[in-house]
Design goal:
Blueprint (H helix, E strand, L loop, with lengths): L1 H21 L3 H21 L3 H25 L15 H21 L13 H10 L3 H22 L28
Helix pairs in contact: 1-2, 2-3
């Protein structure tokens, strides 16, 4: 089952990668790239590294969401939906791609890969964490929680009013007093 899932995700990732260069709008390219990279993250999970796979998926989803928001906000065409080409310098790109593919394929077969010397650890997430952080794992966990609390606090302090302020302190103000106007009860 794992083999079928791995190859299925691989085919989907490759299909998404091809769509990146064949779609004719930035919005479609963004979602094709997102789909491809989510499939790559799934492949990493299937290979037995769930932590890294989830991190890849989370990073790529957030990156593509930010890219889509900036596309909608700042692109001259509406939301990147106008036709365009993602291919530039076709001959140079094709030559470079073929050369790089040949070099990487040769490296796969010619490099003397090391053999595993120990047994595979039961918890790969713990091993990755210890490899990256060493003795500072607790420090990084505390810093992560502190950064999250800082982000939430900043958002709370930045808003002038809360979600239910227009209903009064006792939530009994009917109809709602909406200082911004608009909404359902215009």
């Amino acid at each position: 089952m794992e083999t079928v899932l791995f190859w299925g995700l691989g085919v989907l990732a490759l299909t998404g990668a091809v769509l990146v260069f064949t779609c004719n709008s930035m919005a479609r390219v963004t979602f094709a790239l997102l789909g491809s990279l989510v499939c790559v993250g799934g492949m990493v999970v299937v290979l037995g590294l769930p932590y890294l796979g989830v991190v890849v998926v989370l990073m790529m989803v957030m990156e593509m969401v930010i890219m889509a928001v900036f596309m909608i906000a700042y692109m001259m065409n509406p939301a990147g939906l106008m036709p365009m080409s993602m291919l530039h310098n076709r001959r140079g790109a094709l030559t470079l791609s073929i050369a790089l593919f040949a070099a990487l394929t040769a490296a796969i077969w010619l490099v003397p890969w090391p053999h595993r010397t120990g047994v595979r650890p039961e918890d790969t997430t713990l091993q990755v964490g210890e490899s990256l952080m060493g003795d500072q794992m607790l420090t990084m966990i505390v810093l992560g929680v502190a950064l999250l609390a800082t982000m939430v606090g900043t958002v709370v302090l930045a808003t002038q009013r809360g979600r239910y302020d227009r209903f009064g302190d006792e939530l009994d103000q009917r109809p709602a007093r909406d200082p911004a106007g608009g909404g359902v009860g215009r």
